[in-house]
Design goal:
This is AG1 protein. With 153 residues, this protein is mainly α. The protein is built from three helices and no strands.
Length: 153
């Protein structure tokens, strides 16, 4: 490429940028396998075992945290009541913290339940999709077999 040609390309690019034109230019073709990432297949894969593990962990966290958080809440409320009855202003503040604790715990428990339920639903839906696809493909192969028999192959 000659120097003048390079200068002209730079000037053209600058004028397009100033005009607000947007575009994309590829410097090479995509790999034949459609890749470009580090994955040899280029697809996101999730196995049932992975989904079940995440759902189980969310369910366990829901069950265990529910009990532990109640212990912390009850202890805090008891301490707040004791402080208040002794005339300490910090008792009301601790009671406020315990109230906020209840809100935060409920948010976490709702999220855990949502994750667990969604993953259970996802696993069931994928199983139903697989069954539907297998049934559809099976009926196509039976149809093909019928055509082959009629054709005399």
């Amino acid at each position: 490429m000659a120097w003048d040609e390079w200068e002209q390309l730079k000037a053209d690019a600058q004028s397009r940028r100033q005009a607000g034109a947007t575009h994309m230019q590829l410097n090479q073709l995509a790999a034949p396998d459609g890749g470009g990432g580090s994955s040899p297949r280029g697809d996101l894969t999730v196995r049932q075992k992975d989904l079940a593990g995440i759902g189980s962990a969310a369910h366990d966290l829901f069950n265990e945290f529910s009990g532990c958080s109640d212990y912390a809440r009850l202890s805090s409320m008891k301490a707040a009541g004791g402080l208040r009855s002794e005339g300490f202003a910090i008792g009301a503040a601790l009671d406020h913290v315990a109230e906020r604790w209840i809100d935060q715990v409920q948010t976490l428990l709702d999220a855990c339940a949502h994750i667990s339920n969604h993953l259970r639903y996802t696993a069931n839906q994928h199983a139903a999709d697989e069954s539907y696809i297998a049934g559809t493909l099976s009926s196509i192969s039976q149809l093909d077999q019928g055509f082959d028999e009629r054709k005399g192959s």
